[in-house]
Amino acid sequence: MPSNDIDRLARRRAKAKIGWFIHATAYVTVNLLLVAISLLSGHGWAIYPALGWGLGLALHGAAVWLFAPGGRMLERMVERERARLAGAKGDPW
Question: Is 92 part of any domain?
Fold first, then answer.
């Protein structure tokens, strides 16, 4: 891989990771505030937005840490598909 492509990919992945850290920080901050409001009101409703947003944060994390371009898991899956397609006879679909 040429060094320009490596640099571009490294920058893209670093920006994606920074984006996830910002998302996680907003998640923690907002949910701490919601928990405080929930406790002051005497109800336990804050768990619902935390669970919903937590799922979104987990999916965002999977996209950044597991399936990012150049990521190990993505590369392994691509290699498996290449091997499967190379051995396929006729239409691979």
Answer: no
Is the pTM above the cut of 0.90? no
Digit-coded pLDDT (tens) for 65-79: 888 877 777 778 888
Tokens of 48: 């619902």
Number of domains in the chain: 1
Residue 93 lies in a domain: no
**Spatial distance between the Cα atoms of 51 and 26, rounded to a whole number of angstroms:** 14
Residues spanned by the domain of 60: 3-87
